[in-house]
Amino acid sequence: MPRKTTRQTAPKVKATKTAIEKEIGVRLSKTEWSEAVELAQRIEANRNYKPGDVKINMMDEGELGTSGYREFGGFITEAYNASLYWPAVAPEYKRILRSCPPIVMVSRAFASWVRNIMPMVDLPEKATDDDKKYQEFILQDFENMDGGFDRFSESTVTNVPFYGFGLFEIMPGLRDPSWTPPPMREINTYEENPSPDNVEGDETPIFGRILSVDDWKSQFDDGLIGIRRLGWRDNRTFFRWEYDDGKHITGVVQQDWPYRQVHIPKNKLLHLTFGDPVNPEGRSPLEAVWRLERLKYGLEIIQGIGFEHAAGFLNVQKTQDGQLTNDDKTNIANAAQKILAAHEGNYAYSPFGIQMTVTDVPFSAANALRAAIQYYDILILSLYTMEWIGLNTMTQHGARAAQADVTQAAVFTFNAMMDGFASQYDDQIGRKLYEWNKNSFPNLTRRPKIRFTHVNNSIALEALGSFWKSIDGIIPVGTDDYKAFRKQTGFMPANSPNPEDIAAGYDTKGLYGYPQDTTGSGGGEGDTTDPMSGGIGAQGGTGTGAAGTSLFSQRNYNLYKAAEMVLSRNGKI
């Protein structure tokens, strides 16, 4: 027998479509009527929902799937070439980062930009005293940290966007100048934790001799727990990942020769990724750079050999009869070495009966090779949205307007990257700081979020002036707006001068609160049933006008009214 299927139907409507149209005062098309009935059905289902109504209560179910990235024995094999698997790729990425000119340019640009970024803490709209105190605590902690925010941020932007991931070891510290941090000790061995709830791989280190003494001292004495140091762990010392059976990271193994392997658990790590938030190794753009850099390197070798050959060769002609003797051949070789060597004033005696001249060779492929090398340079820069560096210098092309556009795109990309790092910092360290200290701030509205400020795009003074003229008399401005505008110029002080300091004859109308023009036509009153309708008046304008319309919101309003009437007729409301 065919299996019976049940069909979900809309609520039975006791009233006709015509009756409901009269109730709401609007005629509905067939499509609108169907949508209204379907909407009523969804509203009824939502109002009557209970967790037990579903076959599987998701709150009672654990995670079922895995992330899916390829991993074996603590090593991830996601890269498109086996040469790019970690940890073997670390020296190769380091070579590119230190020797490839476009990548060095990007790294230096990132390091310069990040110097203009500062941490910030979001506060709720109605912040309590504890909210403000917690904000001050977080900002102080960046200052209190060894190396401060500058060392952390520069270490991040000069490594993580290139390697794909970065690891900092988190070392907490008591904010008490009398507190002495524990010393760094050598790990002799590990023993399995004998506790009954031991998780596989949970091991306790057995410490040996002291390797170094930590001389960090807190600048504050409030007794809170902060971060005394974020210790960067060089990617070249990364050995492998540690997982549980569900492919969740539980820690890393570091191998820094000649020291023995060290297991660093996840809860002691600030683990930053770039390019892929799911893969613990991120997705480094250097994967793509690796291929381009090798092609570029090959072209540079060909170009160098070509220029060497094009510099000329020693053309030797024998002017006397007879064969060249061994002495003649030796003298010719010595002469060629002296004449063609890269030193000024070189000369050589030619044997009797032998004429020597240096002959140039045209290098017709030179321009094509140079263009190809420049193409790969720009392509490498483009992987980081930093091609503006090469415009007009490496390409002999690129108008100023285009350069300004790509520069803004680069700054936007950099700011977005820093937003990602800030989010990871807040999620991993911000939460720890909150858990460690929440009892000291009992009236917190919620856990404040840690964010980083943005790098501002520089605006040409001509564009800045044109913008000011375009909004003058249209958009109201206040003291803060004037300060922001003056600061954006890059050379004017933020605060306006006192009236008595202004040069004679300068019109200060509107600058210090003088009345501005308030004439203009008024906006429409709008429809009280539709907040999206109504006109917009000119700045300072008074009066009334015809109500505006908003067909989209009015249609939705009609559908909801009809849906409510459908439910009302069925006794559901």
Please give a structural write-up.
The chain is built from 14 helices and 14 strands. 38% of the residues lie in helices and 14% in strands. The strands form 6 sheets. A 3-stranded antiparallel sheet has the order 7-4-11. It has a 3-stranded antiparallel sheet with strand order 8-9-10, with no helix packed on it. The two termini are 41 Å apart. The relative contact order is 0.12. It folds into 4 domains: 12-37 and 518-573, no CATH class; 100-175 and 216-285 and 397-457, no CATH class; 289-389, no CATH class; 474-516, no CATH class. The chain is of the alpha+beta class and 573 residues long. The protein has helices spanning 17-24, 30-47, 90-99, 101-114, 129-144, 148-157, 160-163, 286-310, 326-340, 366-382, 400-437, 461-471, 479-488, 551-569, and strands spanning 71-72, 75-76, 119-121, 165-174, 184-192, 203-212, 225-233, 238-243, 249-254, 262-265, 269-273, 313-318, 354-359, 450-452.
Overview features:
573 residues; alpha+beta; 4 domains; 3-stranded antiparallel beta sheet; 14 strands; 38% helix; disordered N terminus
Record the SSE blueprint.
Blueprint: H1 17-24, H2 30-47, E1 71-72, E2 75-76, H3 90-99, H4 101-114, E3 119-121, H5 129-144, H6 148-157, H7 160-163, E4 165-174, E5 184-192, E6 203-212, E7 225-233, E8 238-243, E9 249-254, E10 262-265, E11 269-273, H8 286-310, E12 313-318, H9 326-340, E13 354-359, H10 366-382, H11 400-437, E14 450-452, H12 461-471, H13 479-488, H14 551-569
Antiparallel strand pairs: 1-2, 3-14, 4-7, 4-11, 5-6, 8-9, 9-10, 12-13
